[in-house]
Specification:
single chain; mainly beta; Rieske Iron-sulfur Protein; six-stranded antiparallel β-sheet; 11 strands; about 0% helix; globular; iron-sulfur; metal-binding; Rieske_2Fe-2S; 2Fe-2S
Amino acid sequence: MSTHVVGRVTELPPGERKIMLVENRSIGVFNVKGTYYALRNTCPHQGAPLCKGHVTGMTLTAPPGQYRYGREGEILRCPWHGWEFDLTNGKSIYDPHKCLVKTYDVTVEQGTAAIAVTDLAAEDEQETRIDTYPVTVEDGWILLHV
């Protein structure tokens, strides 16, 4: 597993997203109410850039004749055909057992700084690793684990 720096916590406030290319994969990192989630930026339906879609909520279970809306900021709607996915786990709202989007772990490291180091491993190959070291900072770093 490799680790990639997304940015500082202050650079990705609640409700915001950052789409980045990591190891030839487009991945969206979302801040949902202070918790970070990462999804592959590809809709399983027809390959749309899923992470560019609208972030919303959904209707919840309620007694007959009543309507409840909730989970605001946790549902991602595909920009092409409106398929909806749960940002917290990558599962489809319509068919959560069969239709999924790849998810990735995201952590926040407090009190560390991270730098990317590129080593020339072979003539045509490069290897990138993340080195971390303790420092005093005002906010943490968001790290994506692929």
